[in-house]
């Protein structure tokens, strides 16, 4: 994943980078993306642009008097299409970042941020378990470094552990997050455990003193 | 800067271009909508000369209304000389006809010594209200029109402005 640096102070940049990363991650997990919402928006938008272009050409070639009537019709049509476009963007799409399906499990993700608040809010609708939408959130600092680099691992772990459908698709990240949440063993502890299991066959006292010596030296 | 564009999926790139296209087409359709509403081919014009001083100065923005059929003496109208595309803003000083007969007008700039007979086309001695007049002035904003004068005198400004607008809309993701 290309690590482009963004400004960690721009909420817009943070949200857009995270949205793109989320879509990339889910596509990488073999979720087949459903582009219907975006396609409808593009269709309505470009239809109104075409109407404007045709009106412009007709006016340029034939002049005002000849095209008056058609221009009036075009203006009304354009206003209606633009109204539909606005409704679609605000009412239907509503911050949708990813709509996809994998092995029959549909997932729909919409993201949101609040002004002056560095938190990423996700509304996830899963066709599998709970039918209603779930809200999860995390601060952007979870997956952004202080100077603005996006780190994929913690982001994927958060998603896999918070959303069932993603966790089911990406077991490695889901379980990794769970083990890390438990008390992480320190380096000394790991070594003493390794030594004692390695020399378990030797006599108890000897091995214990040996291992404690070794760990002291290494520590 | 353009790296962010290259990283987009094709549909998202289409969406960004659509944003810019919508800015242009909405501006154009608003203009056409105003034209239809006022029944005038050019509902907002800029004063280019000083022939109407002290009422209107060069650079003033004028708002036109073309649905008043019975133009009176004393009204300020904008008209195009037959064969030329330059709009002229002058005051009506005489009228002939009107009512059921076609209305003819004679105009003169407030700041001019003579009436507009010299300005009309070679075989034209009056204006036809229905054909030559773009509209009568119903309001104005002083000085704002100077931007249009600058754009027409330095055409490279138009291109520069358009490029700047395009870049800022396509590269911004809201």
From TrEMBL, chain A:
<feature type="transmembrane region" description="Helical">
    <location>
        <begin position="70"/>
        <end position="90"/>
    </location>
</feature>
<dbReference type="InterPro" id="IPR009582">
    <property type="entry name" value="Spc2/SPCS2"/>
</dbReference>
<feature type="compositionally biased region" description="Basic residues">
    <location>
        <begin position="210"/>
        <end position="219"/>
    </location>
</feature>
<dbReference type="GO" id="GO:0006465">
    <property type="term" value="P:signal peptide processing"/>
</dbReference>
<comment type="similarity">
    <text>Belongs to the SPCS2 family.</text>
</comment>
<keyword id="KW-0472">Membrane</keyword>
<keyword id="KW-0812">Transmembrane</keyword>
<dbReference type="GO" id="GO:0045047">
    <property type="term" value="P:protein targeting to ER"/>
</dbReference>
<feature type="compositionally biased region" description="Polar residues">
    <location>
        <begin position="193"/>
        <end position="206"/>
    </location>
</feature>
<comment type="function">
    <text>Component of the signal peptidase complex (SPC) which catalyzes the cleavage of N-terminal signal sequences from nascent proteins as they are translocated into the lumen of the endoplasmic reticulum. Enhances the enzymatic activity of SPC and facilitates the interactions between different components of the translocation site.</text>
</comment>
<feature type="region of interest" description="Disordered">
    <location>
        <begin position="173"/>
        <end position="219"/>
    </location>
</feature>
<feature type="transmembrane region" description="Helical">
    <location>
        <begin position="40"/>
        <end position="58"/>
    </location>
</feature>
<dbReference type="GO" id="GO:0005787">
    <property type="term" value="C:signal peptidase complex"/>
</dbReference>
<dbReference type="Pfam" id="PF06703">
    <property type="entry name" value="SPC25"/>
</dbReference>
<protein>
    <recommendedName>
        <fullName>Signal peptidase complex subunit 2</fullName>
    </recommendedName>
</protein>
<keyword id="KW-1133">Transmembrane helix</keyword>
<keyword id="KW-0256">Endoplasmic reticulum</keyword>
TrEMBL record, chain B:
<dbReference type="InterPro" id="IPR036286">
    <property type="entry name" value="LexA/Signal_pep-like_sf"/>
</dbReference>
<dbReference type="GO" id="GO:0006465">
    <property type="term" value="P:signal peptide processing"/>
</dbReference>
<dbReference type="InterPro" id="IPR019756">
    <property type="entry name" value="Pept_S26A_signal_pept_1_Ser-AS"/>
</dbReference>
<feature type="transmembrane region" description="Helical">
    <location>
        <begin position="133"/>
        <end position="149"/>
    </location>
</feature>
<keyword id="KW-0812">Transmembrane</keyword>
<keyword id="KW-1133">Transmembrane helix</keyword>
<dbReference type="GO" id="GO:0005787">
    <property type="term" value="C:signal peptidase complex"/>
</dbReference>
<dbReference type="InterPro" id="IPR001733">
    <property type="entry name" value="Peptidase_S26B"/>
</dbReference>
<keyword id="KW-0472">Membrane</keyword>
<feature type="transmembrane region" description="Helical">
    <location>
        <begin position="12"/>
        <end position="31"/>
    </location>
</feature>
<dbReference type="GO" id="GO:0004252">
    <property type="term" value="F:serine-type endopeptidase activity"/>
</dbReference>
<dbReference type="GO" id="GO:0009003">
    <property type="term" value="F:signal peptidase activity"/>
</dbReference>
<dbReference type="InterPro" id="IPR019533">
    <property type="entry name" value="Peptidase_S26"/>
</dbReference>
<keyword id="KW-0378">Hydrolase</keyword>
<keyword id="KW-0735">Signal-anchor</keyword>
<comment type="function">
    <text>Catalytic component of the signal peptidase complex (SPC) which catalyzes the cleavage of N-terminal signal sequences from nascent proteins as they are translocated into the lumen of the endoplasmic reticulum. Specifically cleaves N-terminal signal peptides that contain a hydrophobic alpha-helix (h-region) shorter than 18-20 amino acids.</text>
</comment>
<comment type="subunit">
    <text>Component of the signal peptidase complex (SPC) composed of a catalytic subunit SEC11 and three accessory subunits SPC1, SPC2 and SPC3. The complex induces a local thinning of the ER membrane which is used to measure the length of the signal peptide (SP) h-region of protein substrates. This ensures the selectivity of the complex towards h-regions shorter than 18-20 amino acids. SPC associates with the translocon complex.</text>
</comment>
<keyword id="KW-0645">Protease</keyword>
<protein>
    <recommendedName>
        <fullName>Signal peptidase complex catalytic subunit SEC11</fullName>
        <ecNumber>3.4.21.89</ecNumber>
    </recommendedName>
</protein>
<comment type="similarity">
    <text>Belongs to the peptidase S26B family.</text>
</comment>
<keyword id="KW-0256">Endoplasmic reticulum</keyword>
